[in-house]
Design brief:
The chain is built from eleven helices and twelve strands. By secondary structure, it is an alpha/beta fold. The structure holds 4'-deoxy-4'-aminopyridoxal-5'-phosphate.
């Protein structure tokens, strides 16, 4: 059979599908609701892109206070996760629940993954983490901080303890760091730890279409991972567009401030609804759980929101060893514009019976 040519670990995989009914209010993918004007891009489209994305890496290295050689560029941070797993391999330690691509890419490359459940507050369970580090000596540990989809930031001291106890590389994925009220970044700690890498993306701050992600870390490690990078992984349009938009730091920052304010307002509004429990968030989204005694099921809530032209992300499972898990009956809603958020709240009130706590 021709299908038997496919590796068994790939056959066993479920494709990463994105469920996106055509709603006009899209609060499902942690995108920014605000875009930026592209302007006129002067690009020689008959030429390959700059393989090193040198100008862009220089600008970002300057912002992050590191040397350009400490920055590796990817076609989104998804690609960089792939490169890390290709260059370093497993075992890979991943907390659960977290961003699903760490596991999906590790599985697709046939690497051994160890999932460790987060504690009741969605923070790192240090006893379990240190036990797993001791037992498996993972070569890679992925920590999303703030964590997707739970929205919280793992306690800084706990992350430091993981870095200090790990024999392998610890990747602190700061995709949502710009929205963190703390404003703390592990980039500042890079000089202290050679085994620390920080991952960043421009996707969440309004440039998702460009597919631009970065790893920041030790020059030698960055150089080694760079060996598996495909030659022209970031196209010329994305490089030029990002360079233009990044010059307007004021506009980018204003959008971030607006999203943070709206997140806090959205959280307050969601807290008033009796049918759900929202979790406080340091990111541009909010996780909430439908209460057992709610008058509507999770399926019905999802479908009714779609009928109101609003798409959010429905979650399930999320445990270290599959379903059932802490994300059962949970949803993740991305912070939209004030108007979108108001429409979402209104629809939620209507669907869940509107009763307030
Ligand atoms: N890391 C985390 C924690 C994410 O949530 C996402 C996107 N949802 C990514 C990385 C991937 O981002 P990118 O668009 O840069 O591939």
């Amino acid at each position: 059979m021709i299908e038997d040519l496919i590796k068994p670990n790939i056959k066993a995989l479920k494709a990463y599908t994105i469920d996106a009914p055509p709603c006009s209010i899209r609060l499902d993918a942690n995108e920014s609701p605000y875009g930026f004007p592209l302007g006129a891009l002067k690009i020689a489209i008959n030429r390959y892109p700059d393989p090193e994305a040198a100008a862009l890496r220089k600008v970002l290295a300057g912002k992050w206070g590191v040397e350009p050689e400490c920055v590796l560029h990817g076609n989104g941070s998804d690609e960089l996760i792939y490169y890390l797993l290709t260059a370093v391999g497993g075992p890979v330690l991943i907390p659960a629940p977290t961003f699903s691509m760490y596991r999906i890419i590790a599985d697709s490359l046939g690497e051994n993954t160890i999932m460790v459940a987060l504690d009741g507050q969605f923070d790192l369970d240090m006893e379990a983490m240190l036990a797993a580090i001791g037992r498996h000596n993972p070569k890679l540990i992925f920590l999303s901080r703030p964590n997707n989809p739970t929205g919280n930031s793992f306690t800084c001291e706990k992350v430091l303890e993981v870095i200090e106890n790990a024999g392998g590389l610890v990747i602190v994925d700061e995709a949502y760091q710009p929205f963190s009220p703390r404003g703390d970044s592990f980039i500042d700690l890079l000089p202290r730890y050679r085994n620390l890498l920080v991952m960043r993306t421009l996707s969440k701050i309004g440039l998702a279409a460009l597919r631009l992600g970065f790893i920041v870390g030790d020059k030698a490690i960055i150089g080694a991972i760079n060996k598996v990078r495909l030659p022209y992984n970031v196209n010329s349009l994305s490089q030029a567009a990002a360079l233009g938009i990044l010059k307007d730091e004021k506009s980018i920052d204003a959008c971030i401030v607006n999203i943070k304010d709206e997140r806090d307002r959205l959280f307050m509004e969601l807290s008033k609804l009796k049918a759900i429990k929202p979790y406080s968030s340091d990111a541009n989204f909010i996780l909430f759980k439908l209460q057992n005694n709610a008058s509507v099921t999770a399926d019905a809530l999802y479908k009714k929101l779609i009928a109101d032209d609003i798409l959010i992300k429905k979650l399930a499972g999320g445990g270290a060893s599959g379903a059932p898990g802490p994300l059962d009956n949970c949803f993740r809603v991305t912070v939209g514009t004030p108007k979108e958020n108001a429409a979402f709240i209104m629809s939620m009130k209507k669907i869940t019976g509107g009763s307030l706590k």
